[in-house]
Amino acid sequence: MQRRVQHCRQSRSLAVLPLLLAFVIAFLAPAHADEAQVRSIITKFGDAKGFPQIEAVVQELGATGDPVVARSLNALSDGVLHVRKADKQIFILEERGGLRVLDPLSGEAVADAGVARDYTKIRVNNGLRRTIRGVLGSLTLSASDPNARMRAADTLFQTPDPDAIETLDGAIAGESVPAVKMRLQQARAAAVLQSDLPDAQKEEAIALLGGMGDRAALSLLNGFAANAQGDLKSAAEGAADRINTTLAAWDMAQNVWFGLSLGSVLLLAAIGLAITFGVMGVINMAHGEMVMLGAYTTFAVQEAIRAGAPGLFDWSLLIAAPTAFLVAGAVGLAMERGIIRFLYGRPLETLLATWGVSLILQQAVRTIFGPNNREVGNPSWMSGSFELGQLAITWNRLWIVVFALAVFAVLLFVFNRTSWGLHMRAVTQNRRMAASMGIRTPWVDAFTFALGSGIAGIAGVALSQIGNVSPNLGQSYIIDSFMVVVFGGVGNLWGTLVGAMSLGVLNKFLEPYAGAVLGKILVLVLIILFIQKRPRGLFALKGRAVEA
Amino acid sequence: MNLKLTRRGVLAAALAGSISFTAGAAFAQEETIKVGVLHSLSGTMAISETTLKDTMLFLIDEQNKKGGVLGKKLEAVVVDPASDWPLFAEKARELISANKVAAVFGCWTSVSRKSVLPVFEELNNILFYPVQYEGEESQRNVFYTGAAPNQQAIPAVDYLMNEEGVERWVLAGTDYVYPQTTNKILAAYLEAKGVAKEDIMVNYTPFGHSDWQTIVTDIKNFGSTGKKTAVVSTINGDANVPFYKELANQGIKAEDIPVVAFSVGEEELAGLDTAPLVGHLTAWNYFQSVDTPENADFIAKWKAYIKNDKRVTNDPMEAHYIGFNMWVKAVEKAGTTDPDAVIDALVGVSVPNLSGGYSTMMPNHHITKPVLIGEIQADGQMETVWETPGVVVGDEWSDYLADSKDLIADWRAPMNCGNFNTASGKCGGKATN
Amino acid sequence: MITQRFLSNGFSPRIQLTLLLLVAVAILVPVLNLALPADNPFHVPTYLVALFGKYLCYALLALALDLVWGYCGILSLGHGAFFSLGGYAMGMYLMRQIGSRGVYANPILPDFMVFLNYRELPWFWLGFDHFWFAALMVMAVPGLLAFVFGWFAFRSRVTGVYLSIITQAMTYALLLAFFRNDMGFGGNNGLTDFKDIVGFPVQAQTTRATLFALSALALALGVVVTAAIVGSKYGKLMIAVRDAEPRTRFLGWRPENVKLFAFTVSAVMAGIAGALYVPQVGIINPGEFAPANSIEVVVWTAVGGRGTIIGPIIGALLVNGAKSWFTGALPELWLFALGGLFIFVTLFLPKGILGLYDQWTGHRRRIRKQEPAPLPGAEVQPAE
């Protein structure tokens, strides 16, 4: 064993994985070692110095083939496996609300735990985690949990080994879950390509892999085609070409999705501005700071939840959204009443005054919360991703798209279907006429501005999920927001939607060719040129209203 | 005429006022030694630099508790260059000319350092620069206490290559000089190690880039060929949070594609949920988690000073700690704060660093430091997984760039040169060409 | 002949006084700096010479903006771009002057090109080793950009807020472009480590004093040009365009040409300001293109009083003086003070400090005869 591990360290640690397959084969029918033996191996962690030695112990545990070692290996991987300094015994430490010391095999709490200082953590690094994953994978090919079997099949697929074909045949025969079976067959096909089995079998394997259509299959086929001859070579190349064709289509779809997702971020950032700037004609340079306030509100809400009711964490965003709306809305209302209402009709001066407000808000946040980034966590339903064909869609992006569209729909409803919306539109279109009809224009102004600011605050809640929460947050969105509103056309929410989405998609289609920086510059130049062509944006309001 | 008089009077008064302000500042200070602190407290860089300002105030405070230097108390002069590069030059000039500081501790970005360099040269003062940078510079008045590329980037790549078996490399960075130069050095180094060109992907993004979807997908695809892939990230501060969030969400685990970052420290991670990032790597010369008595003492005093138990320490803070102690020692050795004497006295000064060894100021004005590779932990700290056996000497002129490999710096007499060309035997860069 | 037409009206006493003062400063400050020993109470330290030299460049920039905003109603949020382009043109000349004294001692390539593996000078760097060429480019590049930009924008009648936003887009795009290292302008670090300007060492006290004097004189020249334009018949037309563009058009004038003229002249002035600024601060980098910088210029102008000639100068000197003082004395409060100033001035001093002064002294009526007073709120009607 020792020699084997030595060898393993000398070659790269990647070489560990094929080795693991040997275990899979050797322990297909897990020979349950007795508990005392496992315990004695675990104890060896106490004397292991450095990663190679720890890895040797992991291998030895894997070699027992006993699923009971999974607990200690998982603990090691999570960095909670500890050595008691006094007697070199191994325990799992849990520090959730006070220290709990658990037995590494049974998972039962030990009576006299002592304090955390009595224990030394067993160190773990990426290579070790990979080894553990492999060991666990091989242990679980026959596990009862289909997910565990799936992971095992993944491991086997990633490290094709002709020697494993027999094992795989056995596993395929016994597998009942179709998805796992499929994966096992793919793993087998990958292994077949590297074996010296007859060409007919290899052709089948090529067909199977060709059908997968993803990048992993593509690289296997390319690798195979490079060394193959004759029919097999052309078959593999043909399959690779087909995969490339489908991947190109998926790439297109991916760009569209990325573009829409970027577009909805822009939409969120800009839609509040579309109201204050578009509807009221106020150039609110502090708009970005309203977004920032929303993000900081999210932070504060999450802090409160962490301190008071950790169980509610997944709900934090739902609590933060209305809070942020109120906070940013209130600041907006104060701004309108205190400053902006004296400057109506002088849009360029509101620009200066609101710029001043933005500086003050930035520095205030810096003074209160400190200049550093603040941590805003993702609730569990916004973490991770799922696969849609060859498209990896992350949950947070998906929810932001949904959220942006929802905000848009609500605003549209408010504008078109409520009496307040009617008043707003009336004031926008003809202030004096509206006033003579008895609409209290100052209050409509104030609340419209508060609404725009509040929406910006809500945007901040969403944006805190994908970016920094720092005093500079607002600055990074303000220019983009203005571009969206101007591009889309002032005074029209639909313009903002179309503007945001088209800028997002355009950006994402340019990025692969021009790079992120040049792509952005090109978009700006295109906007400048576009404005020359249509000085009032995509969806310009017609008629006298805008002819100043 | 009346108007004329008042107006001129006002301006003359204003001018005289500012003169007397300056002069007053110059004369009133006999009993203290002034130390300039030149870190942005507002604007985009405040996020990183404010902590360093606090660190300097803390260090000066500690030194004063020990009785100051040369029997005099130290006095910090804090100014705010507001992340505005020309303002750095103006403030440096103000610190040196108007406030008569003995030395300045400051700057973060390369451009701010470049901006103040001529000022320090002209007015002959001392700058301690605490941040890792791209190298390719050695100036008589500047002491570089951060890492040069060979003290951070190259050991990190070595680690990935030897310990993790990485064969394919993504060099991702923000488009400015530090990543550009570091990546040039790394690409040359990797090619020298036999890595094929198509196994290296270089990508640059603008400052504060926030939409990482495309790039993270590209990295994922680049890493799906079966060869072990790693990302070497020189992505600058602000852009890191969205980058790591996207990585975590797209499910790129450290076991599959590890990311080693050179600009992400404890301070940056404090703004992130690090649970999905466990195992990604950073390379620095100091981690808060380093287990030495000096470090424990430093952290405890720092937390007490800043009155916040949650504050973290990071590499540039240690760089200031080392640089400040070096300066104190050199001033005591020279017996004066006169810049020329202190510059000469600084070379060869050796002070304890926080990772349990000694750092020495070398003749090239760079210091010796250990290199630590750490893995990010769920609590936002790093755990050292590898370190250099001894300390590494900062190499100002990279050996992997064609135009700088013949250059060395040695500020001792008789050489006294920041860019001595060993091939031509002359000071002043490449004499041929 | 054109000059004569422009100058025919003569200058108001206020402008004559400003000119006199600027010339006096241009002579006096360098003399006080160079001739008097450092311990003399009237000695002006070199540090202040550099500082005030910088302010004077800012003042010229503010004046340039005032020509288009105060007199022609075009609020440009991209004047920093013209300033920076002028600065870059000068910076490129200064870089070429370093010659083989760079750290790599490459006689042709600047240092940043050497370590970014450039093998030869990009074509757009050619010619910058001659001062006359650089001096030409200082004016030609911003002027040309303004001309082309204005040509399209004014012709398609992009006005008011839209124009402001696209000028902002312009400077933002340039910011991103100059940040790119592949552009060949030194990326984020920009151009720095200058040695000589027309044979004189940049850091020498005499050079600094000379540059200061030149800045003061350039500002004086800017005042002459602006006053001449504003005082001429063409200036009247500009004000007409500012106050009622459609009406001017209906009367048979071509507002787009008037605006284009003002915009281009203003950009050239801004370029010259940038060129004088660079050798005095010793660095030019893409940060100067930042939209926030351009907005600050607008603020100086507003604080001093737009639509006047000396207002922007006073505003630039005052705000920057305050900035220098605050960032040294009360660093944490600087943004509060600046932000508060913006709000205060827009709310309570719509005509700026100069307007307030005029109100106080009751000179208003008399001055109005010679100087067209600003008309707040006339540039864009409320959106109703």
From TrEMBL, chain A:
Residues 1-33 form the signal peptide. Belongs to the binding-protein-dependent transport system permease family. LivHM subfamily. It is found in: Cell membrane. The chain crosses the membrane at residues 256-283, 315-335, 398-415, 446-466, 478-501, 513-531. It is a multi-pass membrane protein. This is Branched-chain amino acid ABC transporter permease. One of its GO terms (biological process) is amino acid transport. It comes from Tianweitania populi.
TrEMBL record, chain B:
Keywords: Signal. The keyword Hydrolase does not apply. It holds the Pfam family Peripla_BP_5. It comes from the Bacteria. PROSITE patterns: TAT. Residues 1-25 form the signal peptide. NCBIfam families: urea_ABC_UrtA (TIGR03407). This is ABC transporter substrate-binding protein. It comes from Tianweitania populi.
TrEMBL record, chain C:
Keywords: Cell membrane, Membrane, Transmembrane, Transmembrane helix. It is found in: Cell membrane. It comes from Tianweitania populi. InterPro entries: ABC_transp_permease (IPR001851), ABC_transptr_urea_perm_UrtC (IPR017778), LivM-like (IPR043428). One of its GO terms (molecular function) is branched-chain amino acid transmembrane transporter activity. This is Urea ABC transporter permease subunit UrtC. It is a multi-pass membrane protein. GO terms for cellular component: plasma membrane. Its main location: membrane. It comes from the Bacteria. The chain crosses the membrane at residues 47-69, 76-95, 131-154, 161-179, 209-230, 258-278, 333-357. Pfam families: BPD_transp_2. Signal peptide: none annotated. The keyword Membrane applies.
